[in-house]
Amino acid sequence: MDASQGVLLSSSLVGAANGPAPASWPELLGSRHWDGLLDPLDLTLRRLILLCGDLCQVTYDSFNSDSHSKYCGSCRYSRSTLFARTMFPAAADVDPAAYLYATSQASFPGGIMVFSLSREAWSKESNWIGYVSVSTDAAAAATGQRVIYVAWRGTIRTLEWVDVLKPDLVSPDHVMKGWYLIYTSSDERSPFSQHSARDQLLAAVRELVARYNGESLSIVCTGHSLGASLATLSAFDMAVNGVSRVAGADIPVTAIVFGSPQIGNPEIKKRFEELPNLRTLHVRNKPDLIPLYPSDLLGYANVGDLLAVDSKKSPYVKENTTNVGDYHNLQGILHTVAGWNGNDGEFKLQVHRSVALVNKSSAFLTDDNLVPESWWVERNKGMHLKNQFLYTS
């Protein structure tokens, strides 16, 4: 993948917006609820959205979901090689700082947690669920901003969890029980989840806030599908519980999420909107049904501002796909963002982004694009020759 497909955090993310007055960094983070930036879609905001999507894609590309591997449920790569091994396009501008793990103690359905069949499994209680990263010194110097990014992993099997995960509401302020348990559960049996994903996140962010105290800080949470719900919940948590305050001043916290299910009831929506330093931008593909789950009929409400795009306008994808999961596919959404010119505008790619990415884990592209389906796979599915006679994962 060509690095030009991504977003650099230096000159391309500052001062490159449409028109004579480029959007400021606070405006890109939603200080004015993205007023005037969504239609037409501001070029710099478009790049920021794609950056967040690429951060999400790293969680899919690096996750070991092969139950035959004793490392199933882990991240395949170390933090030092994570972005290089996943060919993340902005690797020069962001450094991974911490990994996040969740536990299966709450008996989550398949597709959310996956585990190895091996008796020597790395963990029988925990899964890697995301990571925290931060702007490099070079990127911070170029932009004047030190950005802490939190990327949450979505589900591996896109739709099967919808019918299994019960849409019960729990306190605080009535968020969906499933999202809440994934975020807050711990398991003292696991060295990776003795502290909940929430506690791991807050500790990592506090450390980064203390390290870069005195710089212009901001926090961006991102995720797709289940990961979008966790991104929204964690952004709210950091804003409401003081993690995003330094020397008495609020650090802006923004969630930029993709294909997000609803996370809670109107009360959580009200509390969310009362926090002055908290914003959410939900990027939704119009044909995607997942953002309608669990449903306002069950007492749920949408949170934040909406950028609605429509993949059916793209001439590159199948017009009438029989796989409804294609509309929820992250790369399909990012492709649509890259070429979106409003409801009345013609679809035309506005950034250098390979169309082939759409088929990374799908068969959504039309056949005349000559791109194989689901082409992103680990070399030899992770098998390697241990010695002259033995292959192992």
TrEMBL record:
One of its GO terms (molecular function) is phospholipase A1 activity. Keywords: Hydrolase, Lipid degradation, Lipid metabolism. Residues 149-295 form the Fungal lipase-type domain. Its EC number is 3.1.1.-. It comes from Panicum virgatum (Blackwell switchgrass). InterPro entries: AB_hydrolase_fold (IPR029058), Fungal_lipase-type (IPR002921), PLA (IPR033556). This is Phospholipase A1. The lineage of its organism: Eukaryota, Viridiplantae, Streptophyta, Embryophyta, Tracheophyta. GO terms for cellular component: cytoplasm. Belongs to the AB hydrolase superfamily. Lipase family. One of its GO terms (biological process) is lipid catabolic process. Pfam families: Lipase_3 (PF01764). Acylhydrolase that catalyzes the hydrolysis of phospholipids at the sn-1 position.
